[in-house]
Design brief:
By secondary structure, the chain is of the alpha+beta class. It contains seven helices and six strands, in the order H-H-E-E-E-E-E-H-H-H-H-E-H. It has a six-stranded antiparallel sheet with strand order 1-2-3-4-5-6.
């Protein structure tokens, strides 16, 4: 996935500082990090990895196809994810897209009122918000987080503050297609919640800046704007920073 596709100067995206986070949130993230590590290790001990789990028994791995087919959906939390690849990034094997559907959203959630819409957005019970993308390397380990434009995800566009309210609601509580992967991806959203908040807030600033530079265009369908922000991550480094901040 191309991370450098901007034709105008855009605001800087700064990673979160653990020292500025409340101790209660750090404690929650440390617990989530233990879950992330446990899930990954459970697979790696027997020579498997997260990506291999979602690709198993799925046939040929085809660019842009969703894996597993028909996505993973939790009918209690209304959380959803899938894995796919664009095959145009040397560092990335592919990435997970994570979503929350209408049934799991806060009652106050309202889509952005955008008069320039040129493509229909999912509405009503079909509304869906993209929380974050998780980039994976060839070894099936997470290497980055990203936010994307609407045309990339096919989502309903909600303001960042509404999306941030949705983050704690994301959880996959069943075992299909893989119990370790479902536990891992649920915990990843908790472990890196400060990063995701930063990406979502930055996303809205980028969209606004792009719209001002391209008046009259539907910014959400502009193929020149794919990603709005990307943050490299390391589970071990982030956990070490959290442990230091906690101490």
């Amino acid at each position: 996935m191309n991370k450098k596709n901007f034709d105008i100067p855009l605001p800087t995206l700064t990673p979160p500082d653990p020292a500025q986070l409340p101790s209660r949130e750090i404690a929650v993230m440390l617990t989530a990090g233990t879950e992330v590590r446990t899930s990954m290790r459970a697979l790696e001990r027997i020579g498997l990895n997260l990506v291999g789990e979602v690709l198993k028994d799925q046939g040929d791995f085809i660019e842009l196809e969703h894996y597993p087919k028909d996505d993973v959906f939790d009918d209690e939390t209304h959380s959803q994810y899938y894995y796919h690849t664009h095959r145009n990034d040397a560092d990335e094997h592919g990435h997970f897209h994570t979503f929350l559907r209408a049934g799991g959203m806060p009652e106050s959630a309202r889509p952005l009122d955008y008069p320039l819409t040129s493509e229909p957005w999912p509405q009503g019970d079909d509304a869906i918000g993209h929380l974050v993308g998780i980039s994976m390397d060839a070894w099936g380990r997470p290497i980055g987080l990203f936010a994307a434009n609407r045309w990339v995800t096919g989502e309903t566009w909600y303001p960042a503050e509404t999306m941030i309210e949705m983050l704690p609601r994301f959880a996959i509580g069943h075992a299909w297609p893989s119990w370790p992967v479902n536990r891992w991806i649920s915990a990843m959203v908790r472990l890196f919640q400060p990063h995701i908040r930063a990406l979502l807030t930055h996303r809205d600033v980028v969209i606004s800046t792009w719209q001002q530079a391209h008046p009259g265009m539907d910014v959400f369908e502009d193929r020149n704007l794919e990603l709005t922000g990307y943050l490299p991550i390391s589970v071990d480094e982030w956990m070490a920073s959290l442990e230091q901040a906690s101490a």
